[in-house]
Specification:
Blueprint (H helix, E strand, L loop, with lengths): L1 H14 L4 H13 L1 H27 L5 H23 L18 H13 L2 H17 L4 H24 L1 H7 L2 H28 L7
Length: 211
Amino acid sequence: MDIIINGFLFGLLLCVLIGPVFFALIQNAIEKGFFSGFFMAVGIALSDTIYIFITYLGISQLTDNPSFNMWLGGIGGTIMLVFGIFYMFKPIPTKGLKQLHAEETKWFQQIVKGFVLNGINPFVLIFWIGIVSKITVDFEYTTNEAITFFIVLIATVFSVDVLKSYFAVKLSEIVTPRFMKIMNRVVGVALVLFSLRLFNFVLEGFGIELF
């Protein structure tokens, strides 16, 4: 149950990261309808799944080495700390969501668009490295537990993306500059706290405990 809860919570955390994919998904649904946003969400989920597979497969082979785990904790903590600070001080657009526009595409192109838009962002891969570090070093999940965690996480993100598409018009009114600022600050603080947990693991390797 803890694995499912953690997967759900991390999924919600990813859902409120306000970036280009967030805006593109909402605007697609506003301009072209629910299914346009739905198929774009499919592309995003496929992209995330591939990134997870590549990242976890590469890292899990080395996790039996305590020294590697300390390095992984340090790298993962640094990644989360940088992302946290970035979102805490991220500049907020002065225009609301309704001022953004998307081009006309077909449903298959929406899948490709979601896949590419999410996949070509190097920060997505870096972020997944941070997540994998968290579950490997801090949560100490086995392979089966990690699979369960990621299935719940991806299912949560996909479900929320579908809901975003369904309520796209309402969201376009809610997502104001003030709303974006608040959400970015909340996400930033959460990521900084996660990073401190990983740094604590590294320090424990040297016989030091922060908390």
